[in-house]
Specification:
The complex is a heterodimer of chains A (65) and B (358). Chain A has 65 residues and is an alpha+beta fold. Chain A is built from 2 helices and 5 strands. Chain B is an alpha/beta fold and 358 residues long. In chain B, 26% of the residues lie in helices and 30% in strands. Classes of the chains: A alpha+beta (65), B alpha/beta (358). Chains A and B meet through helix 2 of A and helix 1, helix 9 and helix 10 of B.
Chain lengths: 65, 358
């Protein structure tokens, strides 16, 4: 599982995260990214984090319980 | 476990992305990153903005927490400079010793352009965190700052300095700030905005010399039309050149280059180049190209540029001074770039549109 955190003060609305992980991240009406889930098993969020030009997305791998 | 050793010279964004991506794609040999700055990979774009303003500290600038590199078994060597590379024996000589490599990545970045004249106290450039710390000490209320060059770095520093109470003058060679990147129409809008923030703006000027100030303090900037501008400090923000000292004159097998050294770009090109280089080293399919993306925060505007406006592009402006967008079309009507100013909600759409048009 991955824990997904988006720092919206850093987000610039580039949108590459949504291309990478549309099931976990969306852009809201102001054009900034919002996390749709807090935790996910989808490794696509790793790609979303590395594609973000602002470094606004952090993904932490959680130990399996 | 592989015994292959990949050495990355340069610990900026591109070098960092190579190292992380190698691990993310399962490479389990040795990864060494050698950086000459004493600090780990950080967000260089913030040097002219939040970091210069004092709103962000060193730790807040880092791309990754310091523990990340060890956790990924990436050997991050800071404050170490690669001075020579023996391509035949595949050995790099650094300021601290020698490293053998199987694959070598040159991500040495770029350095600010400076005139060939002797360095002068009070004439600064901005590229590293240390540069930003020196510049920040000069930005006290009432100080006079001359910014040579009205590109992104020059205008961002001017914005930050003006907000700190510094008297700023921008000296720009072209007809308007950022005109070369964003076109004259947008440049004219930005010029009005810059002046409205109390910054003096000299356009179409060629700087002929920067000398020590008359009373031995500060500097005097002379321009070709005869005017002279006294200032406490001058910042040279007239672009950067790739740092190609270590790049071999002909391609060498097993040697890669990415980031600014491989062609001056911006954040996304360095990040993308780093990922692509890691893929190339591992023989993986290359990631699809992304349109170029540049952003800038200045004078109360967030500028976001997607794509590359070409000279002669037709500019379509929409909106008002505080919030506008511009589309750049080639002579055959194709959208080649788009700018959003305080309109972040448009950026993702424009980026997709451009990717489809490409």
């Amino acid at each position: 599982m991955f824990k997904l955190v988006i720092d919206r003060s850093l987000c610039s609305g580039f949108g590459a995260c949504v291309d990478a992980a549309s099931e976990s991240i969306a852009l809201d009406q102001s054009g900034l990214a919002v996390a749709l889930v807090r935790e996910t098993g989808d490794p696509a969020v790793l790609r979303a984090a590395s594609d973000c030009p602002m470094g606004a997305i952090s993904v932490e791998e959680l130990e399996a319980a | 476990m592989s015994t292959r050793r990949i050495v990355i010279v340069g610990a900026g964004l591109a070098g960092a992305r190579v190292a992380e991506t190698l691990r993310a794609r399962g490479f389990d040999g040795r990864v060494v990153v050698v950086g000459d700055e004493p600090v780990g990979p950080y967000e260089r774009p913030a040097l002219s903005k939040g970091f210069l303003a004092g709103a962000r500290d060193r730790a807040g600038m880092l791309l990754r927490a310091p523990s990340f590199w060890a956790s990924q078994e990436i050997d991050l060597r800071l404050g170490e400079r690669v001075v020579a590379i023996d391509h035949r024996r595949r050995i790099a000589t650094t300021s601290r010793g020698r490293i053998r490599w199987d694959s070598l990545v040159l991500a040495t970045g770029a350095r600010p352009r400076r005139p060939p004249s002797a360095p002068l106290a009070g004439v600064l450039t901005l590229r590293t965190m240390a540069d930003a710390e020196v510049l920040r000490r000069a930005l006290v209320p009432g100080a006079r700052l001359a910014v040579v060059g009205g590109g992104f770095v020059g205008t961002e520093v001017a914005s930050t300095a003006a907000a700190l109470g510094v008297e700023v003058t921008i000296l720009e060679a072209g007809p308007a700030p950022l005109a070369r990147v964003l076109g004259e129409e947008v440049g004219a809008l930005l010029a009005d905005r810059i002046r409205a923030h109390g910054v003096e703006l000299w356009t179409d000027v060629r700087v002929t010399s920067i000398e020590r100030g008359r009373d031995g303090r500060g500097v005097t900037v002379a321009v070709a039309d005869g005017r002279r501008l006294p200032a406490d400090v001058a910042l040279l923000a007239v672009g950067v050149d790739p740092d190609r000292d270590l790049v071999p004159p002909v391609p060498v097998e097993g040697v890669y280059a990415c980031g600014d050294v491989a062609g001056i770009g911006h954040w996304t090109s360095a990040a993308h180049g780093g990922v692509a280089t890691a893929h190339a080293i591992l023989g993986l399919e290359l990631p699809p190209p992304q349109p170029r993306y540049v952003w800038s925060d200045q004078f109360g505007l967030r500028l976001q540029l997607v794509g590359e406006p070409q000279p002669g592009a037709r500019v379509e402006l929409d909106g008002r001074e505080n919030e506008f967008s511009a589309g750049y079309r080639s002579p055959d009507g194709r959208l080649v770039a788009a700018l959003a100013a305080n309109r972040p909600q448009e950026v993702a759409r424009l980026r997709r549109e451009l990717r489809l048009a490409a």
